[in-house]
Amino acid sequence: MQNLGIAITGSGSAVPGTFLDNQGLSELVETSDEWITTRTGISQRRLATAAESVTSIGTAASLKALEMAQIEAKDLDLILLATSTPDDLFGSAAAIQAELGASRAVAFDLTAACSGFVFGLVTAAQYIRTGVFQNVLLVGADILSRWVDWEDRRTCILFGDGAGAAVLQANNCDHLLGFEIKSDGTLNSCLNLAYTPQSKELVEGVNISKGNFGNVSMNGKEVYRFAVKRVPEVIDKALFRANLTVEQVDWLLLHQANQRILDAVAERLSIPPEKVISNVANYGNTSAASIPLALDEAVRFGKIKPGDTIVTSGFGAGLTWGAAIFKWGR
C-alpha cells in the first residue's frame, strides 16, 4: 500500500461565553490579580455553564475547522477526540460525530491530558500515511472546571474550559516533518485526577469498589521543573527527526499551561519571544484544547501563514509529553 503524506488544512476553536477574571477569583480564595499574573501570566479563564458540554464546544470548533478546510462532515473518515473530561465516561467522540452528521466516520476518544492534541496528531497521521483514511478531524476539548477544587489556590487559578479542532487530509507532500512522544508513569502523582475507591459489600463476602473521581491535584514545582527540562529535550529530538534546526522554525506553539514555562522553554531553545504563540492570558490552561485553540487564533489573526513551520509541544498529566513539527496548510 502506498504511503501518503498529510496536510493540516483547517482549524477551529470555541470557548464558553462565561469568563472569570483574577479579580473574581480573589473573592473565592486568598489571591490577587498581581499574584496570579506574576506567577502564571493568566488574567482570565472561560468556564462552561451546566448547559455547555465537551460535545457542544467540540462540535462548534469542529464546524469552523471543516469550513476552513472546505470539506463536508460526511467526507470525514475518522474523528479523534483528545479529552480528559468527556461528558460520558465511555467517550464523547461519537456524540460529536452525531452532532456533525459525519455518518461515515469512525469516532473514538484519546486520553493523554495536556499532551492529547500532540498525541492525537501523531495518531491521526499514522492512519493517513498508511492509506487507511483520507480525512481526519482531530478535536481537543476539555471542561476542567468540573474537576477543579475552587477553594484550592494552587490549582483553581490555572485552569479554564475550551475546544479546538484541526482537519488533517491526505496530501502528496508530507507536512508532518517529525515528532517525538514520551510518557513516565513514575511521575503520575505530580499531576492527576484520581478515582477514590470506597468499598461496598454487595452480598456477604463480596465487596466491590463504588467511589468517585476527586479534584485535580498538582505539585506545581515538580511539574514546572519537569516541563522546562523535558520539553526542550523532546523538541530537540523532533527537530532532529525532521532534519531541521531551531533557526528554521517560524513559530513555537506550546501547551498553554503557564507563561513562565513558555518563556523558559523558548529561552533554552534560543527562540526569540516574537516567535512564541501565547494566549494563556485570556484562557488559562485548557488542557488538550490549548494547542488547537492557540493555533486557530494565530491562523485567523494572520500570524501563521501557509507554509510556515511550527514546532508544537504538549506536556502534562501521566506524565506525558511530546513534540511535533509541521507545516501549516496544503
UniProtKB/TrEMBL annotation:
<dbReference type="Pfam" id="PF08541">
    <property type="entry name" value="ACP_syn_III_C"/>
</dbReference>
<keyword id="KW-0444">Lipid biosynthesis</keyword>
<dbReference type="Pfam" id="PF08545">
    <property type="entry name" value="ACP_syn_III"/>
</dbReference>
<comment type="pathway">
    <text>Lipid metabolism; fatty acid biosynthesis.</text>
</comment>
<keyword id="KW-0808">Transferase</keyword>
<keyword id="KW-0443">Lipid metabolism</keyword>
<dbReference type="GO" id="GO:0005737">
    <property type="term" value="C:cytoplasm"/>
</dbReference>
<feature type="active site">
    <location>
        <position position="255"/>
    </location>
</feature>
<protein>
    <recommendedName>
        <fullName>Beta-ketoacyl-[acyl-carrier-protein] synthase III</fullName>
        <ecNumber>2.3.1.180</ecNumber>
    </recommendedName>
</protein>
<feature type="active site">
    <location>
        <position position="285"/>
    </location>
</feature>
<feature type="domain" description="Beta-ketoacyl-[acyl-carrier-protein] synthase III C-terminal">
    <location>
        <begin position="240"/>
        <end position="328"/>
    </location>
</feature>
<feature type="domain" description="Beta-ketoacyl-[acyl-carrier-protein] synthase III N-terminal">
    <location>
        <begin position="108"/>
        <end position="185"/>
    </location>
</feature>
<comment type="subunit">
    <text>Homodimer.</text>
</comment>
<feature type="region of interest" description="ACP-binding">
    <location>
        <begin position="256"/>
        <end position="260"/>
    </location>
</feature>
<dbReference type="InterPro" id="IPR016039">
    <property type="entry name" value="Thiolase-like"/>
</dbReference>
<keyword id="KW-0511">Multifunctional enzyme</keyword>
<comment type="similarity">
    <text>Belongs to the thiolase-like superfamily. FabH family.</text>
</comment>
<dbReference type="InterPro" id="IPR013751">
    <property type="entry name" value="ACP_syn_III_N"/>
</dbReference>
<keyword id="KW-0012">Acyltransferase</keyword>
<dbReference type="InterPro" id="IPR013747">
    <property type="entry name" value="ACP_syn_III_C"/>
</dbReference>
<dbReference type="GO" id="GO:0006633">
    <property type="term" value="P:fatty acid biosynthetic process"/>
</dbReference>
<dbReference type="GO" id="GO:0004315">
    <property type="term" value="F:3-oxoacyl-[acyl-carrier-protein] synthase activity"/>
</dbReference>
<comment type="function">
    <text>Catalyzes the condensation reaction of fatty acid synthesis by the addition to an acyl acceptor of two carbons from malonyl-ACP. Catalyzes the first condensation reaction which initiates fatty acid synthesis and may therefore play a role in governing the total rate of fatty acid production. Possesses both acetoacetyl-ACP synthase and acetyl transacylase activities. Its substrate specificity determines the biosynthesis of branched-chain and/or straight-chain of fatty acids.</text>
</comment>
<dbReference type="GO" id="GO:0033818">
    <property type="term" value="F:beta-ketoacyl-acyl-carrier-protein synthase III activity"/>
</dbReference>
<keyword id="KW-0963">Cytoplasm</keyword>
<feature type="active site">
    <location>
        <position position="114"/>
    </location>
</feature>
<keyword id="KW-0275">Fatty acid biosynthesis</keyword>
<dbReference type="InterPro" id="IPR004655">
    <property type="entry name" value="FabH"/>
</dbReference>
<keyword id="KW-0276">Fatty acid metabolism</keyword>
